[in-house]
Amino acid sequence: MYCTKCGKQLPDDAAFCDACGARFAPEPSEPELQFDPPKTKAEPKQPEVSNAFRKWVKEQGLFCLIAKAVAVTVMTFYLLVAIVHMISLAVAGYPGGTIFAQFFAELLQGLSYGVIIWLLSDAVLYLQNLLKIKKQELKNK
Ligand SMILES: [Zn+2]
Predict the structure, then answer these.
(1) How far is the CA of 32 from the centre of ligand 1 (A)?
(2) What Rg, from alpha-carbon coordinates, does the chain have?
(3) Quick check: helix, strand or coil at residue 16?
């Protein structure tokens, strides 16, 4: 280091200049930085999502909820079957193209079954709501 007053070269850890007597403030060894602890808990978002989900479940009613559970189960089942088939075909030494085609055919089949069941349950839900509205209208007349 060099003295800030007279410019004499001094050892780096010098507390004062031996030529002009200037004092140097000791370097802060541990800067005490006080950070606010970051609030990682995303509390406002979580209930919002679960509330939306709960509302969705309530709207579905038992029948449509079961139908949707069946739809998801069917899709999951077909996915698992497709994976098992893919592995067994690979073990049997089938060419990659065949395995790939088979896997996607089964995956698409399961997906379309699942989507059809899901849409049917939505259609039922729609009709149920429509009937409710019609009944309410008849009552009011
Ligand atoms: Zn000096």
Answers:
(1) 30
(2) 36
(3) strand
How close is the Cα of 22 to the center of ligand 1, in Å?
Answer: 6
User: CA 77, 83, 85: angle at the middle one, nearest 5?
Assistant: 100
Cα 1 to averaged position of ligand 1 atoms, centre (Å): 11
Query: Whole-prediction pTM value?
Result: 0.58
Distance from residue 7's CA to the centre of ligand 1 (Å): 6
Q: Would you give per-residue pLDDT tens digits along the chain (141 residues)?
A: 898 899 999 998 888 998 999 988 765 555 555 666 666 655 566 678 888 888 888 888 888 899 999 999 999 999 999 999 999 999 999 998 999 999 999 999 999 999 999 999 999 999 989 999 999 999 887
**Secondary structure element (H or E) that encloses residue 51, with its range:** helix 45-92
Alpha-carbon span 81 to 88, nearest angstrom = 10
CA 88 / ligand 1 centre spacing (Å): 83
Dist. CA 28 → ligand 1 center (Å): 21
Residue ranges of the domains in the chain? 60-140
